[in-house]
Specification:
Length: 164
C-alpha cells in the first residue's frame, strides 16, 4: 500500500475512534449559563472538521489539508470552515476570546502551550472528553492527544474560549 493510502487509512481509523467520545462530549456542551444551540452546533462542526484533519502532515506555515498544517494553521482552517476568522499565528490567536480554566473547557476551546523559553508557541483545539487535536511538529501528523498526558501538561499555559 502506498504512503498516501496508509495515511488515509490512519486518518479514517483515528476519526472513527474519536467520533464516539466526541459525540458524547458534544452532546452535553453545557458549562455555566443557559445553553446556546447555535454555538453548540458550531462547536460540533468544529470538532467534526478538526477530526477530519487527523493524519494530515505537519508543515511549518501550513494552512490547508493539501499542503499540511502547523498548529495555528490547523486551528485557523477549522474555524474558517465555520465562517469564523482567526488570526494566523499562535500568539495572535492567544489574544482572541476570553481566558478560561482548563476544567471549564468545552469542545472548540483553544489550548495554549509553551515549548521553549519564549512565549506561547503552540495551540491545540479541545475536542471534549479530555482530548485535543494537535498539529505537533515537523515529521509528524495531526493527532488527537489526551490533555492529561504528562508531556502536554508540563507545557500547558492556558485556555481561551473564542465562542461565547
Amino acid at each position: 500500500m502506498s504512503g498516501l493510502g496508509k495515511a488515509r487509512q490512519r486518518r479514517w481509523a483515528a476519526l472513527l475512534t474519536c467520533i464516539g467520545f466526541c459525540l458524547t462530549a458534544c452532546g452535553s456542551l453545557g458549562g455555566s449559563g443557559a445553553p446556546d444551540p447555535e454555538n453548540d452546533a458550531i462547536r460540533r462542526a468544529l470538532v467534526f472538521d478538526a477530526l477530519g484533519q487527523i493524519g494530515r502532515p505537519y508543515r511549518y506555515g501550513g494552512t490547508t489539508p493539501d499542503s499540511g498544517f502547523d498548529c495555528s494553521g490547523l486551528v485557523q482552517y477549522v474555524y474558517g470552515l465555520q465562517g469564523i476568522r482567526l488570526p494566523r499565528t499562535t500568539r495572535e490567536q492567544h489574544r482572541v476570546g476570553a481566558r478560561i480554566d482548563l476544567d471549564e473547557a468545552v469542545p472548540g476551546d483553544l489550548l495554549f502551550y509553551r515549548f521553549g523559553r519564549g512565549g506561547i508557541d503552540h495551540v491545540a483545539m479541545y475536542l471534549g472528553d479530555g482530548q485535543a487535536v494537535h498539529a505537533p511538529s515537523t515529521g509528524r501528523h495531526v493527532i488527537v492527544a489526551p490533555v492529561g498526558n504528562r508531556w502536554w501538561q508540563q507545557r500547558y499555559v492556558d485556555a481561551v474560549r473564542v465562542l461565547p
